[in-house]
Amino acid sequence: MRIHGYLHKFMFICILILIFTCAGCGKSSTTVEEAKSPEPGYTVTPATSPEPSDSQMSSASPVPDAAKDYYGDYMESGGEVALVIDCNGVEDNGYNQAAYEGAKTYAQAAGVSYSYYCAESDTDEAYVKALEMAIANNAKLVICVSAHFEQALGSLQEDFPDIHFLLLDGVPKDASGKELPIAPNVHCVSYHEEEAGYLAGYMTVLEGYTNLGFIGGETFPSIKRYGAGFLQGIDAAACELGISDDVSVNYGYTDTILPDQRIEEVSAKWYESGTEIIFACGGSIYESVLSSAESCNGLLIGADTDHSSISKLFLTSAIKEINYSVIMTLDEYFACGNIWPEELAGQLTTYGISDKCIGLPLSDHAWRFETVLYSDYTKLLSRIKNGEIKISDNIASLPKTNIQVNYHNDL
Predict the structure, then answer these.
(1) N or C: which end of the chain has fewer CB within 10 A?
(2) pTM of the predicted model, to two decimals?
(3) CA–CA dist 7, 56 (Å, integer)
(4) Best CA proximity match to 233, nearest among 252, 214, 257, 216
(5) What confidence tens digit (pLDDT) does each residue in 90-130 have?
(6) Residue 179 has what DSSP assignment?
(7) Using an 8 Å Cβ cutoff, are 168 and 156 in contact?
């Protein structure tokens, strides 16, 4: 039976208080409508700094971290909650790190043991091996971070019915990539990335930029939704300003989550040919784009998390609150007695603006728009929430636009 008592509610409130006390509270990366009065829970940062990890570490070994675990809940192996990430490592200033922060924050506040594991390479075999190691080390809840684990989880979900899985940004698939039914011991979480992309594109054009670029990593649905929303936001702002004929976008995918010399070369070529700002979307490919931006006097838009602390060249970031959604989901699991509640078991939950899990960073150091105001942003959010603005999540093809989109298949 699911626990609804005051004790559990009190514990969750304490977790949120801990999150904001440790994070310094303030307006850190918040995506709420009012920048000056953020609501608890929309931005989470770890109680301690994320630990370094070696992206080349074997998937047969978790990342040792006991020395930095001030609460004593981290376990080199055997943690009740196990986070399993791709070869990009946990300290990626993005997706992996945000998922880790959420899991660690909840585990430490709730007194739950945890550990995390890195796949040794970007292959299905490595992802399966990493999941199997977490299971072998007695994990009860395994968090699979990103769509990289879709096929690995698809092959394992029914073999381990007593193990519970949380898959972020994907659903179980077979070896051919076909979607499988979600087993009752699995819960999946996804996001309306098209909304985040729309916000970034719209505000960037409103700021005065007319020559933009989008470089996506692997063609996962989540990354394609970012791109589709980005184009829709750019097009909408251009139409409203009456400048559609003057706005253009270079657009392409790299098929990698890692920095690559080719990405640096292509982005440099774009900057040199007039592109003012590039949305670098996927893993750590932003590192390659940032390198060319530094040499070409260009700007960037970050993806998934607030990238403003990485470089002053990030105008903004398209955020999805991965960390907070992990906290919410873990709370549902433990509230139900360490199983998925009926409404989550075998189901997919999608978070968006209406759940306060999508937005742009509004903290003083991250708000780098000089022309547009907070009020412009909050009005845009309101128009989306009340249905005045419709954002399509269709990724079967690029959205139809009045602006010029130059698709590049040479990345």
Answers:
(1) N
(2) 0.83
(3) 43
(4) 214
(5) 888 889 999 999 999 999 999 999 999 999 998 999 999 99
(6) B
(7) no
